[in-house]
Amino acid sequence: MSNQGSEKVYNRRNSVRVAVPASTANLGPGFDTLGMALSLYSWIEMREADHTSITLLGDQLDGIPTDKTNLIYKMAQAVFEKTGISIPELKITMYSDIPLTRGLGSSASALIGALAAANALTGHLLSDEELLNMATAFEKHPDNVGASLYGGIVAATWNGEQARCIGIQPPEALQALVVIPEFQLSTAAAREVLPTELSMADAVYNISRSSLLVAALTSGKLDMIREAMQDRLHQPYRAALIPGMEPILAHASDHGALGIALSGAGPTMIALVDRHSGQKQQLENYLLNTMQSHGITAQALWLEPVTGGVIYYYDTESGSFMDTVKGEVRL
Question: For 174-303, CATH number?
Answer without folding.
Answer: 3.30.70.890
